[in-house]
Amino acid sequence: MLTTTSKNKRYRLLKSLVPKDSDILNYTTHTRYTGFIPEPAIVNFFNGRIWSRLHTPFPQQKIDTYINRGYFETTSAVNTAPKLICRRCLNEQPHKFVSFHCAKCQKVCHYCRHCITMGRMCSCDELILWKGTETRKFKSQVKFAWAGNLTPYQKKAADELAHSISQNRNHLLEAVCGAGKTEILFTAIQESLKAGKRVCVATPRTDVVLELYPRFQQVFQKITIHALYGGAENNAEFAQLVLATTHQLYRFEHAFDAMIVDEADAFPYTYDEALQRAVLKTKKPDAPIAFVTATPSNKLLLQQKTENWGYSFIARRFHGHPLPVPRFQSLWNYEKALQKNKIPQKLQVWLYQRLQQNEPFLIFFPTIELMELATPLFQKIESTIESVHSEDPERKEKVLQLRNEQRKGLLTTTILERGITIKNVQVAVVGAENPVFTSSALIQISGRVGRNIQYPTGDIVFFHHGITMEMDQARNKILEMNRHE
Ligand SMILES: [Zn+2]
Ligand SMILES: [Zn+2]
């Protein structure tokens, strides 16, 4: 049993270890009886994370010491009994596991293909999980630095969302593209951070993380914010606010007091059961999830009703102007024309109009192949035109160059369907009848137009080889939103 004096001494020592101005955990309950003080760097790094035992940023001996002292739970990366389950991404679909004769363990071993992009881990590899989470408490010093104003619609939704989150209640925020969703989130995030909660904003798209990160840094000051996406640096400190692609969630477990899933309907989140489970495992068991989207799936709408979540709806853009309505224009045999190295006439006319009027533009293509066929033809007309797709390492730069008016326009796959905002942008979809263009994708694409208050309108055209139901649905939904008050 420790005496009061030695406890105080230890507390003073502890305080001296802790940098004053950062978001710090309170270790006192943990250290009181064990007589061992975990290093802040270790606690900050591992709190809420699930990590490979052998690949941490710390010396292996140190990690082993902490494991021996009971600070970590260790677990096999792939559980084999009673059935195969990946401990990292919770995938349990048998066809996503590979069994092989393993040189390390000299047995038949299994690894999960589903989360292999985060490094291959097989059944004889170990993951470690920090156990000390119950001792955490923040001294949050978050400073809210946002000078903007919310419209009455935004304000109502922002208050409703913040109320749900404070009550640990799930919430669905349905807001048209351009409603100013990010600003609507500020209140809920700010209140959670102020209450010392750890918050995660997850989105399926890297582009969205990249767009939100600088804005969040501006608005939420004096706290550590991390942006996590494939290829991002691994930050060792503890972040009270984490922005992550849904894939990066695999690295966390019971970490967050509030989860916000932005663009909740976007691929791959909708289709991927394992990703949905990852969202559930990432948050603490009683932490609420807020889903934010312009195009909720029927499943999400049903869940909202049956499970009695909070709900907010905004049919108006922040600037009050209606959503641009897509027009349909036939572009028969466009594929054949492009294969013969010709830009179909109507598309060419559209392109020249943009160039003459000096309007930036995005042209969406259904496949990378078709887009790459078209790119040199467009470049012959205007050399600054470029194309982007999901694997393009220069994607960020190219979008930035379009925004800075160094490029006239971009050809793109659906990768740019959401998250990006370019002043006065005009948009065309080539091959709008292709099945990749679902009604929600088409609504999102149309939502790129007219977002800026100085340019609240613009052209959105669906060039097609036959009108589909999805195209009709997209247009009808937009018209319906415009009728709302
Ligand atoms: Zn093995
Ligand atoms: Zn996995």
Overall description:
With 485 residues, the protein is α/β, with parallel strands linked by helices. It folds into 3 domains: 4-134, no CATH class; 141-314, P-loop containing nucleotide triphosphate hydrolases (Rossmann fold), CATH 3.40.50; 327-483, Rossmann fold (3-Layer(aba) Sandwich), CATH 3.40.50.300. It is 34% helix and 19% strand. It is built from 15 helices and 22 strands. The chain has helices spanning 4-17, 28-34, 40-46, 60-68, 152-166, 181-194, 206-219, 273-282, 298-306, 334-339, 345-356, 368-381, 395-403, 439-446, 469-483, and strands at residues 50-52, 72-76, 78-79, 85-86, 97-101, 108-112, 126-130, 143-144, 171-175, 199-203, 220-221, 225-228, 241-245, 258-262, 289-293, 310-314, 327-330, 361-364, 386-388, 409-412, 426-430, 460-464. Helix 5 (152-166) packs parallel to helix 6 and helix 14 packs across helix 15 (469-483). It starts with a helix and ends with a helix. 43% of the residues are buried.
